[in-house]
Amino acid sequence: MKTTFILAVFAAKIASIASAKHGDTHLRGLEHRHLHHKGRATSAIEVGRGSQVEEPALEKRTGQCQFPEDAGLIPISGSSNGGWAMSPDECCEPGGYCPYACPPGQISMQWDPEATSYTYPQSMNGGLYCDKDGKIKKPFPDKPYCVDGTGNIGCQNKVPGNIAICQTVLPGNEAMLIPTDVQDKAILAIPGPEYWAGTAAQ
Asked: pLDDT tens digits, residue range 159-172?
């Protein structure tokens, strides 16, 4: 009877030790999964004694369809347009055309080569093309971004402070988004007959 009691106590002690080891292993596994999901900054996580699992490197993302700041163009302010001559809440997206504003007195010379008439939706395709990878391309590589208008119409400011004369975005959404800030006198951007589809941008 005494021997049976001693064996029972010994078995209980062994079970207690095994349970403690199992709990420690389980806790380490939970810690690994928790840290993995929390996006730990280190490159490896310890999951046991002497073993490591490599974490995947964080992917660095760059902007898409970025406005060309070194092309001498005029950025148009807006919450989402990124400087393009688009409505404030519009975005330049991959697979689309993104119109831009030229300096005062100049007009754009880039648009969809397949848009040859004033018909929707081709009439929206003005400016530079943003390809599916988010890279900006000139539809007409041999042409400049902007050229001088006809130069035969100007305006003179006779009121206190400056005024703005706005140009329609065409081809584009035809919103009056391209300003000419007139302090005293300014030449307006009036296109000639060689402009897109023989139209005019008012």
From this structure: 999 999 999 999 99
